[in-house]
Amino acid sequence: VSGEQLYADVAKDILLYVSRDLSDKSGGFYSAEDADSVPVSGGLEKQEGAFCVWTASEVRELLPDVVEGAVGAAMLADIFMHHYGVKEQGNVAPEQDPHGELQGKNVLIVRYSVELTAAHFGITVEKVNELMTSARARMAEVRKIRPQPHLDTKMLASWNGLMMSAFARVGAVLGNEAMVERAVQAGYFLKEHLWDPDQQNIIRSCYRGDQMEVQQISPPICGFLDDYAFIISGLLDLYEATFETEWLQWAEELQIRQDVLFWDDQGGGYFCSDPNDGTVLLRLKEGALHSWFISHH
Question: Sorted alphabetically, which PANTHER family does this protein's record hold (predicted)?
Fold first, then answer.
């Protein structure tokens, strides 16, 4: 809407991370990576953010190049540290680090616009973009050899619907066919692994097995309102990105099924779970989700 490139870049970066680190070969999306991981220095005790934080000395060691034309004969490390707020003593406030795990460490945060960083060092915006891209690539290579955080390979229907929306919408807006295709893969994943055609029900979740195959818990949990709502919304976004009518048709079928399962004829609105499910003690309606659903349909 704004034409501001920063927003497109951030969206693309998020989807790059998801497609690289949170994607199953089946087309599904995993739930999360842990915040804690084993530090590079070794030991068995995990630490907060160990996989993705940096010391100032690490940055200087990795980025020693002198940047031609930069004010004060600045090194690449100087420009990188300025732009991403890296400090000698670390940039995590003590009140945000109650266990002292991040002392001397830095979380990389964009502190200045590219224009301000360029002006500060007397170089062009294009040069700053080029330098930061190169620096990030170098640091990413080093990060690859760090102990990986634990991966939660649970794949939730609702969250997969949301990611399908994200890939479809970003792909359509930016004209990126690969992103649209990733959304299509997610659509087929949902239909194959989280839809029971016999019972006509969404299944809440599945997970990656020991042999990298998709497995269901036994017995599988039937989907809740958010699973239907977010998949339907994702299918509509996918249809608008591809104009393939199979996605529109399935969205309509799911909407009819959602109304059968969750709609409250007496009080109006949707229950969060099937009101006829005897295992659910309370028949709840989630106001925030209901408002979201109304605003998107």
Answer: SPERMATOGENESIS-ASSOCIATED PROTEIN 20
Q: What is the DSSP letter of 48?
A: E
Cβ neighbours of residue 163 closer than 8 Å, sequence gap 6 or more = 18, 29, 186, 234
Q: How far apart are CA 157 and CA 204, in angstroms?
A: 5
Mean of pLDDT values over 107-112: 96
**pTM of this prediction exceeds 0.85:** yes
| Cβ contacts of 71 within 8 Å, gap of 6 or more | 120, 121, 122
**CA atoms of 222 and 150, how far apart (whole Å):** 27
Side by side, the strands of the sheet bearing 154-156 are: 154-156, 205-208, 214-215
Which secondary-structure segment (H or E) carries 208?
strand 205-208
CA–CA gap between residue 212 and residue 297 (Å, rounded): 37
What is the average pLDDT across 136-149? 95
What is the structure's pLDDT at 211? 86
Residue 62 has pLDDT above 90, yes or no: yes
**Which segments of 73-200 are extended strands (E)?**
151-152, 154-156, 195-196
End-to-end alpha carbon distance in the chain: 20
**17 token code pair:** 């991370």
Q: Kindly state the greatest CA–CA separation across the chain.
A: 74
CA dihedral 27, 30, 31, 32 (to 10 degrees): -140
Q: Which own/partner pairs from 138-141 qualify as long-range (CB within 8 Å, at least 24 positions apart)? A: 138/62, 138/63, 139/54, 139/59, 139/62
Percent of the chain with pLDDT over 90: 79
More confident residue, 15 or 38: 15
